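Recall that a protein's primary structure is simply its ordered list of amino acids. Everything else, from secondary elements to tertiary packing, is in principle encoded there. The following example makes that idea concrete.
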Amino acid sequence: MGSENLILRIDGLQSEEDRMDVKRALEDVAGVKWVCVDGEAGTAVVIFDPERTPQDNLINVVMEMGYAVKRFFSG
């Protein structure tokens, strides 16, 4: 079981509650191993198993919450 890192740029995080909501939503995705959301920087770092979920699923979860999301880095 491998893992990949994904860094997302998330526009619109306004509060600690927003940050925690995004963190919980990403943690609930199958294959996600670790999540850190930085509200001040507007980024989320996700370590996940690409065999269980593609990057686009992670992006879509955050977009469905109403945020604008850009893939900042993956590897």
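The chain has a mean pLDDT of 94. DSSP finds two helices and four strands in the chain.
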